[in-house]
């Protein structure tokens, strides 16, 4: 069921996915230096790794949902802490006068670039935590497997939009220059949004 609360969390999910990190900066660096095709291959690899964690989390959470409701409360608070950490990280970047690098390019054949993208998410413990947290935040305690997979589809569509969008945007030199000029304002916006989202999740119980 799509509610106003879910829309707010979905937007936070998009901003979390789009904020600077190993995946997004790797896509940006690869697209800038190796071209759009290589950037897309890397992005699709990241999406593949993300899908594996997302489905695994949905299957695992569905199996223990009713018997271990307290687990989801713990995961929910981990999600709050994660958003708070993202807010502080974005604020520090915004306050810094240092130039932020746009990541190192990933090289090799398209198959190798895809595999490296998948490996980033499959070896990143934050990926499974992020998926587990978002399910615990948006899903009711009695959510069925079909409901969790429905949430997966909506959230994963946002991930595809962000990661593939990065490959297209950062293969354009004009976009790179624009991002660098406005970087600080982007980071202030990220910090504010993550902070508000973290507070709302902490103080409002979604049902």
From TrEMBL:
Q: Give the principal location in a single coarse category.
A: membrane
Protein name, per record: Threonine efflux protein
Q: Mark the transmembrane ranges.
A: 42-67, 74-91, 148-170, 182-202
Q: Which organism is it from?
A: Ruegeria meonggei
**Pfam families the record matches:** LysE
The keyword Cytoplasm is annotated on this UniProt entry: no
Q: Which GO terms describe its cellular component?
A: plasma membrane
User: Which cellular compartments is it found in?
Assistant: Cell membrane
Keywords assigned by UniProt, alphabetized: Cell membrane, Membrane, Transmembrane, Transmembrane helix
Signal peptide (from-to): none
Mention one GO molecular function: amino acid transmembrane transporter activity
Its organism's taxonomic lineage begins at:
Bacteria, Pseudomonadati, Pseudomonadota, Alphaproteobacteria, Rhodobacterales
Identify its membrane topology class: Multi-pass membrane protein
